[in-house]
Amino acid sequence: VNSTIPITSEVFKKHGVYNPNRIFGVTTLDIVRANTFVAELKGLDPARVSVPVIGGHAGKTIIPLISQCTPKVDFPQDQLEKLTGRIQEAGTEVVKAKAGAGSATLSMAYAGARFVFSLVDAMNGKEGVIECAFVRSEETESPYFSTPLLLGKNGIEKNLGIGKISPFEEKMVAEAMSELKASIKKGEEFAKNFK
């Protein structure tokens, strides 16, 4: 996602049909995982837990904003760091569990469906539909960045930004920048070589 969305954007630009409000890198899988892991630790229903996940969709670029979780939850710093690491590496955890014979196909399908249903609801006029996605962004120094987005008939109606985050989360955002920018540049360079 961190490289393919820049690739997609560059291809659309070359064909004169680029609209940054309609190109989404779906990062919902990270949100589903964050919601599930927080719910497990707190004895909550995962369907009623909402953790925004910002940044990108790979390793340390996955930044769960547990400080913005609904309902409000608190974890000691060591547990917070462990939980964050588990969310960031959940894809690897599944591949290891399947002994390299597959990946998280069912949860990927669920996350994709959830995002599409939200998009369709918004396109059909439902108000207040918010999903996080990796999009063209001016929220940080990275030209693409995942944040909560208000969706509507035209795709992105408003980028809701990062909001108030904890010092721990601020540090993760800063540490993700070089990897994000490198992945984006790699995607853009790859797209330049298309005929």
Automatic annotation (TrEMBL):
This protein's UniProt keywords: NAD, Oxidoreductase, Tricarboxylic acid cycle
Keyword Hydrolase assigned: no
UniProt-listed InterPro entries: Lactate/malate_DH_C, Lactate_DH/Glyco_Ohase_4_C, Malate_DH_AS
GO CC annotations on file: mitochondrion
Entry keyword annotation includes Chaperone: no
EC number: 1.1.1.37
Catalyzed reactions: (S)-malate + NAD(+) = oxaloacetate + NADH + H(+)
All residue ranges annotated as the Lactate/malate dehydrogenase C-terminal domain in the record: 27-190
GO biological process, one term: tricarboxylic acid cycle
Single annotated GO MF: L-malate dehydrogenase (NAD+) activity
Similarity annotation: Belongs to the LDH/MDH superfamily. MDH type 1 family.
Quaternary state and interactors: Homodimer.
Protein name in the entry: malate dehydrogenase
UniProt source species: Corythaeola cristata (Great blue turaco)
Lineage: Eukaryota, Metazoa, Chordata, Craniata, Vertebrata
